[in-house]
Amino acid sequence: MAFNDMVSDMVARIRNALANKAKTVEVRNNRVCRGIAQVLRDEGYIESFEHVADPRVPAAASPQPAGGSLKLKLKYGPRGERVLTSLTRLSKPGRRVYSTVEDLPRPLQGLGIAIVSTSKGVLSDRKCRTERVGGELLCVVE
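^ thats the sequence. predicted structure below, dont judge the formating
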């Protein structure tokens, strides 16, 4: 099966896993999805993530593993409530959405985050403001 938009696939898988109250979710691995998982972990929306190698592909000596999948461990509150309540995809293959650092959105007046693909990698909106860099708005987490 061919995937045209792996970020939308990742967002949909995470939303479905949260609706089912799953502990973990497995998403396809690429550089952008790894960056999104890193931002979600750094901002406290997921507990952790790890790379699961594809048994059909021989292991490479590169520091960034290619292929396989990412296993995300989702985070819930003490009574089972969701930490990540809303995950919305903004930029799509048919309509890319770019923003300068001055025009970056502030979801929930700063309580949520916007995930941005920049020339310095995939960053949260807070990190983009400190580094003074804009880019493509991938998704919004509330």
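DSSP finds three helices and eight strands in the chain.
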